[in-house]
Amino acid sequence: MDSLFQRSLDDIIKGLRHQQAGESAFVSKVLEEVRREIKSTDSHTKSTALQKLTYLHSICFVDMSWAAFHAIECISYPNFTHKKVGYLAISQSFQESTPVILLISNQLRKDLKSNVEVEVSLALECLSRIGNLDLCRDLTPEVFTLMASSRIPVRKKAIGVVLRLFGKYPDAVRVCFKRLVESLESSDSPPIVSAVIGVFCELASKDPKAYLPLAPEFYKILVDSRNNWVLIKVLKIFTKLAPLEPRLAKKIVEPICELMSKTGAKSLMFECIRTILTSLAEHESAVKLAAGRINELLIDEDPNLRYLGLHALAIVAPKHIWAVLENKEFVIKSLSDPDPNIKLESLRLVMEMVSESNVVEICRVLVNYATKSEPEFCNVILGSILSTCSNNVYEIIVDFDWYVSLLGEMSRIQHCQKGEEIENQLIDIGMRVQDVRPELVRVGRDLLMDPALLGNPFLHRILSAAAWLCGEYVEFIRNPVELMESLLQPRTSLLPPSVRAVYLESAFKALVFCLHSYLKSATSSDHSALGLSDPGVSKENHITPDSVLHLLNLIDMAVGPLSGSYDVEIQERARNILGFTELIKPVLSDSLHPQDERHKQQVEASKMVRLLHDTFSDELGPVSMSAQGRVPVPDGLVLHENLADLEAVCGSSLPASSATISFEGSHNVEGATSIFISDQKEESEPSSESTSLLAEHRKRHGLYYLPSEKNTEHHEANNDYPPANELKSELAEQSFLPKRKSKQVKARPVVVKLDEGDVLPISSKIPQAKDDSLSEAVRDVLLGNEADADTLTQKAAADSVIRKKGKEKLNAKEQEDDLDHMDSQSGTVQNPVKERSKRSSRKQNADEGDHGGDKGKQKRRHRHGKHRTREGVQNPPANVISQTPVPDLLL
Amino acid sequence: MGIRFILMVNKQGQTRLAQYYEWLTLEERRALEGDIVRKCLARNEQQCSFVEHSNYKIVYRRYASLFFLVGVDNDENELAILEFIHLLVETMDRHFGNVCELDIMFHLEKAHFMLEEMVMNGCIVETSKSNILSPIQLMEKTS
């Protein structure tokens, strides 16, 4: 009855096509029907319902995990149409953890043994899609049998499944590997070779070393095969193998070059190019040939080939940059290609070409392209300029004045969204490179002066950096009054609070500087005989009494209202400034209006101002990330006890943080434990107060400081500094070493470079959780331990009587195996004997259902016997694996 | 694993066939198909057929109203995948005769079987049209 009124899949598809809107209502209605129909006992109704569900699942993203059991029911139907619906549903919707997955094990075995070819194919297909450890272990013997099937399509599929078996159940290698290797030689049936090469290509990409002994077989295919698909796969295998064995590389380079020049298929030609560039880059002549072919690709009309040509250049760039330079013009022209992918690829190449000598020229070109490009690509360009130039502490930058003004120019590009990166670099350069500070301050001032920039939220971070730089290095400012005006201009209300706080702090510094120079000049005019002159105060920024008055008024007007700000940072800083001006005003006002007592007042005022000025003029420098690590651990402090676990938890996240730099003044008592490095000549005298505090602190906690014996001799003047400075002398020597070229007109300024702390620790590559057991199994099978493999092969197929006999021998072998394993793993016991024997006993149980019979077993044994003799000739004995993995036959 | 997925999408962005060779949840599939379709369908004829997407790349080709999109590992040969797409289309053409979107919609199962013949575990295993089609013909006879 059900099936009479049941809608077929075609009805559903038609229905779906006619639903313009309300598709989901239609789908849920169908789903309701399906839920009802699928419970039917009639096989046709059930399978049709499942078919509809599968369709909705793959097209409309409808969940079908609830129907897993019904799918299993369908594959057990004898009718092929129903069966195939079930199989399709399973391969589309099952995953390894589907709860009912083990229920299909028996049905799969039955279908694998079926006489109907398509049924076997369906089962193999299904296994290759959803096989998990249990399924793969249970069905390995059946697949092994099918690998020798006389029906080519079945054999081909069985070979395809092997990849899944190996991946999920590495012990399958011991059973199936030899047959897989034998299939390599079935040159009479191309589909088999094609399938088996695909399997080896995947296997070799994971652990190439294990497959080196098969190089002669692969070589034969490389030379003999006429199938481009197969050749491409073989080339991929050789790409992985060649770097491991130079003799192999020598051997294959000629046939590959020949293939490259002869073939008409672009795909094969490109694969040859890629193989040569990746793995045979030492063979100069081959690379030259490949470069010639790349040139052909680059001038082709087809954008695909142009893209691949650029891609190939990117591969060759690290080792043979000449190949890229030859095509420089084309690469730069491609920056304006209509295809964004080609643009990106050419940008990568341009960045590869950058060197100390051409960085200025290339950046000029790139910035031009950036201004012309659409926002997205513009930012990609800016991003790669920034990252290339800052690479390894600005390694390629010689002229920092140029670079800093380039940063300023980049900030002004309309679409620039790289505020954060530019901010970091501006500040970083400010701290590292002394010589460039005047230029930095100039660039910063220009940015601050422009009221239009305040309206662009992407620039706020850059403005923050500019404000900080101008405040910190205010002594280089030509006109500090003008700077104050721009820091306090009304439009700063557009800034976010955090940036505004920086503005205020900088205004404070600038104010102190102005007052300091004013008082200083007033004093020096009085005591000109003493000839006091502050090097920071040049004639140009001479401050008049009028401008001081103007400044104080400006602060009252602009900062006054901020003392009630809701943002604590702003409020606090505003109050600091206002408090200071309140303090200084009465004393100053006297000095501004000359009277008799003027001198006394002025002294008081200058004392206050000097105190603050000294505080602000202390140098800030980068702090090494490893600074903390250099503090010796005091006796009696056990770090490992409780913190070891913490390290495991946080270890990976810590080095990633970009906070390589923290601001620590040497006067800062808390900061004294961190290593403060900057150029000593420049270090201004710390206020005596802080120095004495520091000394006291050090006396009390001397334990926490680095030893300082040597230091005293070298730096007498700085006796009181943290002895960490000791490191500096070595460091200075290092970074002062002249490594510039003679043609440079301008010497590269000193860039303060910390030791290893600057470079992010190269994350020690955690060896991939590779399938060690798989590689191990492959090695065992390929290079010795033959008896073991043989035993296992027998075990997989043979009946229990034989197994009992061989058991003792087997166990012994296994133990040996495990010892080997432990040796090679240097102590990491991953595969204890227990586990292994447990597995094999499980396997025995699983094999119970198999009654292959003695006949089949003997046949197989015979086959292996034959194979062993052949391999015995080809392969070196097991104990020399590491020395000569490639058989001499080839070489 | 070579090929990660094969999609057929019409120019309105509706999925007509989706075959994945690694397990993804429905939500992941939906997101992935949305992303890819947005990325690829916006491109024009003058642009190349390769698109980088997260940690793999997509090779695609348009036939009339249908886009064939194949997600592959980065070291896969792009041109070979283009040839693979073409082979797939030719095979379907041979079977359906002047194949169009509707053929795939109404014979989704067959299209899946063709793919199963051609690709296993993400590896291309068969490239001969008659070999690909013979099991399907056999199935038609059997059922």
Mind summarizing the main beta sheet of chain A?
Answer: none
The secondary structure category of chain A is mainly alpha
Continuous helix count of chain A: 42
Number of strands of chain A: 0
Structural class determined from secondary elements of chain B: alpha+beta
Q: From the structure provided, what is the oligomeric state, counting identical versus distinct chains?
A: heterodimer
**How many angstroms does the end-to-end distance of chain B come to?**
33 Å
- Low-confidence runs of chain A: 527-540, 654-687, 703-744, 759-770, 786-884
State the share of residues found in helices of chain A, binned by percent. 55-70%
> Which descriptor suits the 3D outline of chain B?
globular
Task: Please give a quick description of this structure.
With 891 residues, chain A is mainly α. Mean pLDDT of chain A is 75; it is low at 527-540, 654-687, 703-744, 759-770 and 786-884. Chain B is built from five helices and seven strands.
Walk me through what this model shows.
Chain B: One of its GO terms (cellular component) is endomembrane system. Chain B: Keywords: Membrane, Protein transport, Transport. The complex is a heterodimer of chains A (891) and B (143). Chain A is mainly alpha-helical and 891 residues long. Chain A has 42 helices and no strands. Chain B is of the alpha+beta class and 143 residues long. In chain B, 46% of the residues lie in helices and 26% in strands. In chain B, strands 2-1-5-4-3 form a five-stranded antiparallel beta sheet, with helices on both faces. Chain B has a two-stranded antiparallel ribbon with strand order 6-7. The relative contact order of chain B is 0.17. In chain B, helix 4 (108-118) crosses helix 5. At the A-B interface, helix 2, helix 4, helix 6, helix 8 and helix 10 of A face strand 2, helix 1, strand 3, helix 2 and helix 4 of B.
